[in-house]
Amino acid sequence: MGTKGREIVGLDVDELIKRLNSALADEWLAVYQYWVGSKIITGPMANAVEEELAELAAEEKQHADMLADRIVTLGGTPLIDPKMWYEVTTCGYEEPTSEFVKDLLEQNIKGEQCAIEVYKGLLDFIGSKDPVSFHMIREILEDEIDHEEELQVLEENFNYMMSHKQ
Ligand SMILES: [Fe+2]
Ligand SMILES: [Fe+2]
Known about the structure:
Blueprint: H1 3-7, H2 13-40, H3 46-73, H4 83-88, H5 101-126, H6 131-163
Helix pairs in contact: 2-3, 2-5, 3-6, 5-6
Bound molecules: fe (ii) ion (FE2) (2 copies).
């Protein structure tokens, strides 16, 4: 990053890069969790939920792109070894040991709620000290809030359908 571009970042850039890399690990683990979930899902409404999970996998990948680009711009290096994901992640990886629609939805809603907390924490950390990172993280946070809602609507539909089954 250019010298002036770095100079206007009024906080510990190394700490910021560390936190962005932690979020990057969360995103990649989320990509895989959604992606593999979309492959194995079974049960009522499986088709609709499969489509949603595949879409979310793609959006989490976009978040990974945004975070990695910002890390590079700040003069850092995005995690270059997937083994690091487990070491620096906050939200972790929830192995989808059940392929049932409802279990997958519950796991992924939990994941989104963790992501919302992570990005809210990042916004609090950045404050007005780095408007560029702030703007980007706010955009990601808005997506995670949408994701939680979309999954919860699917879960509500699922519950409604099951309770009205003959
Ligand atoms: Fe994300
Ligand atoms: Fe998400």
